[in-house]
């Protein structure tokens, strides 16, 4: 889940918002300002209820952020890089770039989020005990205590990729010693949970509560896709073990002049030959950088006739490069951590190809077709 808007960093971890977050923020805000607070404080004006709703909604999503920070901080302390945290329609997600190397690490990282939410539930519950007779404070306090408790309990449902599913995977991994089998078990559990949500949601729709039923079914659909995707990713990584970069890399990366316009590159190479990555050479024929289709699309189309390859290329000394003998799985993990899609491959200090996650997928599909 990639963020559309970056809002800053916390403990060095980038925090962002997905566009879907604004929808759920608005829904929570409307629910609080037109339903919850008018019921709790009927004597207050609409403006006052809206102000209370805005503050409470911000604190709610701050709680979601703290939940994800709980995961992220434990992951970083365990040596697992975290690319960032994104808040979206279903709450938040910490983009942890590597799988844990032991069931103990998996358990600690997974349980950190629900424990954070439980702590917040206790904090707001204590606040309610202290301020329950103070106007304007009691209703927000008890709401935040309940919502954090619900967040902790929901995430502990034993279905991957929820935190409870990850805890389940850690336990199965601990007793079987097999990470892949544990992931398959937790993923199957996650899909059963997802179908349960979908089924209950459909039942709720037909019993007259259309919006709640639709929301439950939507959550189930999301969980089912996430569980399937997680199982696929683990299987993908397992199949990469023992394969070198040399075996999977693209050897057909053409070298172009840095004076070529982007329009020429698109017409002659991208559309004409289906190529999307290029090494760039200077007037002496020396390789000085690399241009990808992603670099080209960052430039407005109206400028393609006037912008040359050397103006958009990434200089060779700034490129993350890999040896052809490097392990493919480790290489892709390093690329994920560096947030790059493609990287050049060298052999004896010479550029010999390009590696990408898509190229790795093509290689695995080819092995599957050949029955290898």
Strand order of the largest sheet: 1-2-3-4
Unreliable segments of 5+ consecutive residues: none
**Radius of gyration based on Cα positions:** 25 Å
- Distance, first to last CA: 33 Å
The total strand number stands at: 11
Average the pLDDT over all residues and give the rounded result.
88
Indicate the overall shape.
globular
Structural class: alpha/beta
Percent in helix: 55-70%
Number of domains: 2
Tell me the series of helices and strands, N- to C-terminal: EEHHEEHHHHHHEHEEHHEEHEEH
How many strands, what sense, and barrel or not for the largest sheet?
A: 4 strands, mixed
SS field, number of helical segments: 13
Strand content: 5-15%
Model description:
With 372 residues, this protein is α/β, with parallel strands linked by helices. The chain has two domains: 5-156, no CATH class; 245-370, CBS-domain, CATH 3.10.580. 60% of the residues lie in helices and 15% in strands. The strands form three sheets. The chain has a four-stranded mixed sheet. A four-stranded mixed sheet has the order 5-6-7-8. Strand 3 and strand 4 (91-96) form a beta hairpin. Helix 2 packs antiparallel against helix 3, helix 2 runs parallel beside helix 4 (138-155) and helix 6 (179-206) runs antiparallel to helix 7.
């Amino acid at each position: 889940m990639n963020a559309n808007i970056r809002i800053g960093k916390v403990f060095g971890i980038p925090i962002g918002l997905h566009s879907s977050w604004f929808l759920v923020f608005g829904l929570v805000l409307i629910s609080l300002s037109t339903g919850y607070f008018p019921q709790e404080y009927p004597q207050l004006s609409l403006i006052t209820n809206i102000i209370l709703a805005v503050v409470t909604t911000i604190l709610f999503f701050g709680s979601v952020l703290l939940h994800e920070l709980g995961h992220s901080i434990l992951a970083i302390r365990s040596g697992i890089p975290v690319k960032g945290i994104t808040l979206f329609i279903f709450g938040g997600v910490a983009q942890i770039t590597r799988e844990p190397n032991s069931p103990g690490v998996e358990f600690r990282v997974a349980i950190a989020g629900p424990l954070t939410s439980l702590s917040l539930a206790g904090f707001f519950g204590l606040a309610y005990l202290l301020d329950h007779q103070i106007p304007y404070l009691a209703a927000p306090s008890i709401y935040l205590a309940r919502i954090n408790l619900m967040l902790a309990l929901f995430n502990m449902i034993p279905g991957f990729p929820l935190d409870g599913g990850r805890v389940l995977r850690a336990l199965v991994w601990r007793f079987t010693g097999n990470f892949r089998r544990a992931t398959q078990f937790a993923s199957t559990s996650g899909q059963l949970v997802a179908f349960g949500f979908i089924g209950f949601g459909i039942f709720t729709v037909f019993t007259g509560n259309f919006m709640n039923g639709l929301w439950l079914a939507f959550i189930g659909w999301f969980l089912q896709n996430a569980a399937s995707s997680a199982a696929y990713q683990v299987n993908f990584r397992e199949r990469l073990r023992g394969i070198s970069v040399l075996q999977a890399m693209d050897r057909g990366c053409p070298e172009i002049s840095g004076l070529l316009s982007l329009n020429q590159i698109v017409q002659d190479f991208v559309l004409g030959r289906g190529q999307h990555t290029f090494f760039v050479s200077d007037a002496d024929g020396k390789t000085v950088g690399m241009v990808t289709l992603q670099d080209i699309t960052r430039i407005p189309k109206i400028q393609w006739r006037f912008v040359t390859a050397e103006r958009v290329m990434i200089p060779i000394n700034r490129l993350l490069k890999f040896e052809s003998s490097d392990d493919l799985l480790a290489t892709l993990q390093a690329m994920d951590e560096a947030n790059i899609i493609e990287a050049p491959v060298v052999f004896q200090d010479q550029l010999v190809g390009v590696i990408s996650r898509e190229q790795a997928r093509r290689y695995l599909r080819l092995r599957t077709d050949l029955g290898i």
